Amino acid sequence: MTSVQQRQNLIDSITETTTAGARQDQACAVLGLNSRTLQRWQAGETLGEDRRSRRQYSPPHALTEAERTHILTVVNSVEFADCPPSQIVPRLADQGIYLGSESTIYRILKVARQLKHRRSERPSQPRTKPKALSATAPNQLYSWDITYLPTAIKGQFYYLYLFLDIFSRQIVGRQVFAEESSHYASELLRDIVGREGLQPGQVILHSDNGSHIPTGHK
Predict the structure, then answer these.
(1) Does residue 154 form part of some domain?
(2) Count of domains observed in the chain
(3) Where are the annotated segments for Disordered (predicted)?
């Protein structure tokens, strides 16, 4: 079969030849091309196009619209609303009921856009990524974390509490304690607020697990 590019090359060659004064049928004969084929190409007919009318085929056992609606009603009932087709079909079979195969029910649910959510409660809502925190000057955003420090005794640790100014990368507070406690973190933060002269709400404190609170707020 002639490729699209080859066909276009032939059309261009014949066009040049006929423009120079040659007859189109003679140019086609030299190239071994039927003039009617050239006419179809020039009319934009697609290569290998099958112009025969296509017969519409419908499977003899295709479900009717009423049957599809009935299946959707059953699978969305209270008994089956939380079940996938792989559970619905055998449970119906135990009741002596056959509505269709698992694949058939899956296809019906897919068309109805009910594959992901068929429960009565409100579907889950898309969540957007939280706005990233940033600082343009010192004492605007602190990050803090607790680091485990191993001791000479296996399984026992000291705990390093560390507060870092995100903008200046300066360690504004640090202390080692024998245990992990929110009380120690609060005491160290109060000391930092006093030393740095911070005002309520001036600094946002960001922890390693993603939560953050303005200083001076409980």
Answers:
(1) yes
(2) 3
(3) 44-63
pTM of the predicted protein model:
0.39
- Torsion of the alpha carbons at 8, 13, 19 and 21, rounded to the nearest 10: -140
Q: pLDDT by residue (tens digit) across 149-162?
A: 998 888 889 999 99
- In this structure, what are the phi and psi dihedrals at residue 148, rounded to the nearest 5 degrees? -80, 130
CA pair distance 187, 180, nearest whole angstrom? 13
List, in sequence order, every residue forming a beta bridge with 160; answer none if it has no partner.
147, 176
**Is residue 180 in some structural domain?**
yes
How would residue 215 be classed by pLDDT, with cut points 50, 70 and 90? very low
- Which residue segment(s) compose the domain that 207 sits in? 141-214
Enumerate residues 6+ apart whose C-beta is below 8 A from 110. none
Could you tell me if residue 178 is inside a domain? yes
Q: Do 210 and 151 share a domain, yes or no?
A: yes
Query: Which CATH number goes with the domain that contains 206?
Result: 3.30.420
Q: How confident is the model at residue 168 (pLDDT cuts 50, 70, 90)?
A: very high
Q: E-strand spans in the chain? A: 141-150, 157-165, 171-177, 204-207, 212-214
Asked if residue 18 is part of any domain, the answer here is yes
CB under 8 Å to 167, separation ≥6 — which residues? 135, 136, 137, 138, 139, 140, 141
Q: How many CA atoms lie within 13 A of 184 on its CB side?
A: 18
Whether residues 25 and 70 share a domain: the answer is no
